[in-house]
Amino acid sequence: MPRSSAPQDFADRPPWTRPGFVASAALVLLVVIAGVLIAVLAPGGDGNDVGGGGSPANPAPAESDPEQPLPTAVPTTPPAGVRWELVGPLAVPVSATAGPKQVTETSASGFAHTPEGALLAAAQISMRSSYSLGREHWEPTIERQFAPSADRDRLLAELRASDASPADPGSQSQVAGFSYQSYTPDTAVIGLVLRAPSAGTPRYHVLSLTLLWQNGDWRMQAPPGGAWVSVNRVTSDLTGVVEWGAR
User: Fold this and answer.
1) CATH of the domain at 167
2) Which of 65, 157, 211, 216 would be 188's cystine partner, CB 3.0–4.6 Å?
3) Does residue 56 sit within a domain?
């Protein structure tokens, strides 16, 4: 028989060199590799699942952007969800969303960093700093909720030195409307409209109030020279004003 057709004898060769053994080993290796790929590439699989029957771990939620832009659109209608409460004879607005969040017998603070928050701060702080409420109200309000300045100090000094009696409750002006003169997240200038008691033609005082965002809250800027008359004008015309107040 020619040598090329003679049967090959593998009896004296190591088993791992035999063709049958090599083929079987290669098949087992392919099965193992396929199993690993399925485990890694399956939806939700991360290759680290332990326990067999457990659900794949949920991916961590994406972190929210801490630099979300603050709202700047000013309201053109009365803010919703506002109720009016009396502080002495004066009605002040309260909102669950715009503030104030902290209210004591003599102060209100914690307003939202929004146009509505600035509006409620303007109404609350200006009313609570009224001389007619008494020193227990206007003094802590001006000390804590007005931005520090020489004008604030002068306002405080003049009120402390005044010997005038508080005005009669029936003669107090009440909030009747507002108009935004300008607004940014740092500074709000609001025309707060007060209705003066009158038996004849209605008269309104428009106080041009400046609110500054400082130390996590809206704070009033004292009027120039500490005199409210410097930011007040009297009118009977409410054109451009959003009517708003206790009813």
Assistant:
1) 3.10.450
2) 211
3) no
3-state helix, strand, coil in the chain (%, to 5): 30, 25, 45
Residue 159: exposed, middle, or buried by beta-carbon count in 10 A (0-12, 13-18, 19+)? middle
CA–CA separation, 29 and 40 (whole Å): 17
Could you report the per-residue pLDDT of 123-169, keeping only the tens digit for each?
Answer: 999 999 999 899 999 999 999 999 999 999 999 999 999 876 666 66
| Domains of the chain: total | 1
Between the CA atoms of 220, 223, 225 and 228, what dihedral angle is there, to the nearest 10 degrees? Answer: -130
Give the separation between CA 197 and CA 182, rounded to whole angstroms: 28
Q: What is the pLDDT of residues 23-41, one digit of tens each?
A: 444 333 333 334 433 343 4
Is 39 part of any domain?
Answer: no
User: Taking the complete model, does pTM exceed 0.90, yes or no?
Assistant: no
Residue reference for tokens 């206007």:
138
**What does the DSSP 8-state code read for residue 216?**
T
Which are the contacts of 241, defined by CB distance < 8 A and separation ≥ 6? 177, 178, 179, 191, 193
Tell whether 35 is covered by a domain: no
Angle between helices 135-145 and 150-161 (to 10 degrees): 170
Query: Whole domain around residue 95: which residue ranges?
Result: 82-243
Place of tokens 């603050």: 70
